[in-house]
Amino acid sequence: MDGFLAEPARALIVEDDPRVANLHRAFLEEEGLGAVGIAGSLGEAWALLEEGPDLVLLDLYLPDGHGLELLPALEGVYTVVITAAKDVPTVERALLGGAMDYLVKPFGRSRLREALVRFRAFQSLKAKKEVSQADVDRLLGRRQAPKGLDPLTLWRVLALLQGEQAFTAEEVAEALGISRVTAWRYLEALRREGRVRAEARYGGAGRPSRAYRLETR
Question: How far is CA 217 from the centre of its chain?
């Protein structure tokens, strides 16, 4: 364990699939975190918030509403959104609404572990009076955008690529409202950095197109 906390942190799991919720609970326990409970609906989540969790793993598609309805009540609580939603408006609403991380299903255990490491690092700030810009950048996992690329556009491309689906430059351009050449530049820059991989997509006559997939190894 990283040992950032004097006492084990406690998490609230908001997830309506019992199998997935129990997997989350087991993983948290492996990582030395406890759970205040599992909420399968917004109503149950509202009630369990009274237990004062330090961390919330928040699914969005719930039987009685949308998980982002909870965000105003989660101010001051480290929130990690875990969802199949990967459209840009939902991602933007979650992050601008206070979520500290956003995981698109399906994802690997290493990605969830990375989220927990960031949570512990964030909790460790309570022991400090001041932090440096480098501290903040490290906690947020910020990487400098390659020269000549806009950081916000780069983030939008990465957000679109979350999950298992591969996208061509044409598909990225259409989804984000940018030119095909611009989309290709960002995708190739990410490929050179090792953050995405390119693969051939076959279909129809002519040469195969090139599709890009987020590198998860």
Answer: 16
Output the six-digit token pair for 217.
């190894």
Cβ contacts of 60-66, under 8 Å, gap ≥ 24:
60/85, 60/90, 60/94, 61/16, 61/85, 62/14, 62/16, 63/16, 65/41
pLDDT tens-digit map of 35-88? 899 999 999 999 999 999 999 999 999 999 999 999 999 988 999 999 998 888
Residues in a beta bridge with 168: 211
Note the pLDDT tens digit of each residue in 51-64: 999 999 999 999 99
- On whether the pTM is more than 0.85, the answer is no
Closest to 136 measured CA to CA, from 100, 112, 92 = 100
Structure tokens at 186: 């960002």
Strand partners, 214: 196
| Separation between Cα atoms, residue 162 and residue 28, nearest integer Å | 22
**191: which 2 tokens?**
């490929």
Smallest Cα–Cα separation from 156: which of 139, 178, 137, 127? Answer: 178
CA distances from 153 to 50, 94, 115, 159 (A): 38, 17, 23, 10
